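Weekly puzzle thread! Below is a chain. First person to post its structure in token form gets bragging rights.
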Amino acid sequence: MLELAAVSFVLALLAGAVWWVKQHPGWTAAPPHERSLEAVERLRLSPQHTLVVVRAGERLLLVATHPQGCSLLARLAPGRSRRGERVAS
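Winning reply:
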């Protein structure tokens, strides 16, 4: 009987946690204006190779991803994107 009560308690806790997470979407993620790391643009070169422009605080970085990991290719100067928006200050 004690086992049944324990299992019921754990299931009730789980149901409560699921309900709470559904009521508070995005509670773990920082709002976009507070994020310090953001993928600004991606260019897929092949199924396993991608170029990514990453904003890290005020810096723009060009990173290559590949099966062995990732590599920093360049630190980019602040400027404007193709869409005319400012990409770093």
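Puzzle host: Confirmed. Bonus trivia for everyone else. The mean pLDDT is 81.
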